[in-house]
Design a protein that fits this description.
Keywords: Amino-acid biosynthesis, Cytoplasm, Isomerase, Lysine biosynthesis
Number of helices: 3
Oligomer: single chain
CATH architecture of the largest domain: Roll
Shape: globular
Subunit structure: Homodimer.
Distance between the termini: 8 Å
Strand content: 35-45%
EC number: 5.1.1.7
CATH topology of the largest domain: Diaminopimelate Epimerase, Chain A, domain 1
Helix content: 10-25%
Catalytic activity: (2S,6S)-2,6-diaminopimelate = meso-2,6-diaminopimelate
Bound molecules: ligand LBFN2T5F
Pathway: Amino-acid biosynthesis; L-lysine biosynthesis via DAP pathway; DL-2,6-diaminopimelate from LL-2,6-diaminopimelate: step 1/1
């Protein structure tokens, strides 16, 4: 199995080129690939498959999202979390996926769509440098809460295609212990939830940490970054936000209609798994 390793602000991925959809990618195989001691190590897997090789009507696009209109994009991002679960969307993954396509000569620098389980996402990138993605309209769903070691954190529920709870705190995010998963009410979050903790550092400038559904604490989360900016913006309206995460810095633009995420996307290695290992 050929792979490429990449990351976006240290949210890292094993990229599996599978243009014809020939791989039988089981949850167990994904978990082995993402294992940081016994595998390659990553927060998730990005399978790179031609949209026309996906049996969209048979649910190949996932039980988690609609397939309508996806054939408008040549490439489908089949995203999996480190525990093997399927997610609707991954913002950093989309940016790294785009960088891979350009680097591999499968797409030209410019502006084009990637198909995801959360619909088409338009990326903009040059031959090198930052990658920007139109993340679509965030959906603010009202208040929610989670708890961490018995302490309750209140926040805003936001859908970015995948579920988020963005909680504002007033002390440095570095002080949080995220070694254990936040608890939440499964009746409120039946599909689970990604939980962000953010602090306002200055006008339109946040720091954030995240505990991701299916992956644990990661050093960045693109959809989570947008969710935190949406929660912080409240009624403040359109604007550009800077979000510092443990793995670097991302820029979020909210314009009242859609949201954009911009930042680095880097490919660091490529190789092949040993025969019979996976
Ligand atoms: N890190 C991603 C989000 C990945 C999916 C998430 N863990 C979920 O299950 O919804 C990002 O950059 O958005």
């Amino acid at each position: 199995m050929r792979f490429v390793k990449g990351h976006g602000t240290e949210n890292d991925f094993v990229i599996l080129p599978d243009p014809d959809g020939a791989l039988d990618l089981t949850p167990e195989a994904v978990a082995r690939l993402c294992d940081r001691r016994a595998g390659i190590g990553a927060d998730g897997v990005l399978r790179v498959v031609r949209t026309k090789a996906m049996d969209l009507d048979a649910g190949d696009a996932g039980d988690v999202g609609g397939a309508q209109g996806l054939d408008g994009a040549e490439w489908f991002m089949d995203y999996r979390n480190a525990d093997g679960s399927v997610a609707e969307m991954c913002g950093n993954g989309t940016r790294v996926f785009a960088r891979y396509l350009v680097d591999a000569g499968l797409a030209a620098p410019g502006e084009w769509d990637i198909a995801t389980r959360a619909g088409l996402k338009r990326v903009t990138l040059g031959a090198s440098g930052d990658v920007s993605v139109d993340m679509g309209a965030p959906v603010a769903l009202g208040p929610g809460e989670a708890s961490l070691a018995g302490a309750v954190f209140r926040g805003e529920r936001v859908s970015m295609g995948n579920p988020h709870l963005a909680c504002r705190i007033d002390r440095p995010v570095a002080a949080l212990d995220l070694t254990r998963a936040p608890d939440f009410d499964p009746a409120v979050f039946p599909e689970g939830v990604n939980v962000e903790f953010y602090r306002l550092l200055a006008d339109r400038h946040l720091e954030m940490r995240v505990f991701e559904r299916g992956s644990g604490e990661t050093r960045s989360c693109g959809t989570g970054t947008v969710a935190a900016a949406v929660a912080a913006a409240g009624a403040a309206g359109p604007g550009e936000w800077t979000v510092d995460v443990p793995g670097g810095r991302l820029t979020v633009v909210l314009d009242g209609r859609t949201s954009h995420l911009r930042g680095p996307a880097v490919l660091v290695a490529e190789g092949e798994t040993r025969p019979g290992w996976i």
